[in-house]
Amino acid sequence: MDFYYQAIRNLTVSTKFNLHEGNVIEWFDDDVTQPTISAINTEVARLQTVHDGQAYARLRKDKYNLLNQDEMRYDDVKNSTTTWVDAIDAIKVAHPKP
Questions:
Q1: CA 73 to CA 1: how far, in whole Å?
Q2: Which stretch of DSSP H or E encloses residue 18?
Q3: Which of 16, 22, 45, 63 allows an S-S link to 28, with CB 3.0 to 4.6 Å?
Q4: Of the candidates 29, 7, 6, the residue with the CA atom closest to the CA atom of residue 17
Q5: How far apart are CA 31 and CA 28, in angstroms?
Q6: Alpha-carbon distances, residue 18 vs 8, 22, 31, 33, 35 (angstroms)
């Protein structure tokens, strides 16, 4: 994932700029100093670290979305089973928090 645009936005909140191919910045705001490449790269690295740290959550969500959880819970109540809990536990074991 490319975080370059978001990094600039985070560093300059409400300024006007365009980001062209090759991460070429076209700056339109004379009142705000354009961030340095070093500052942008530091913010990109921070965003990448945050993104990578949430990989397990994205994987879990994808797996949770495949389950028909409402029906599983209903069936468990009617049949005195633990199918839903077992499925959720299996996903958490397969994709643990770091």
A1: 36
A2: strand 17-20
A3: 16
A4: 29
A5: 9
A6: 10, 12, 16, 15, 14
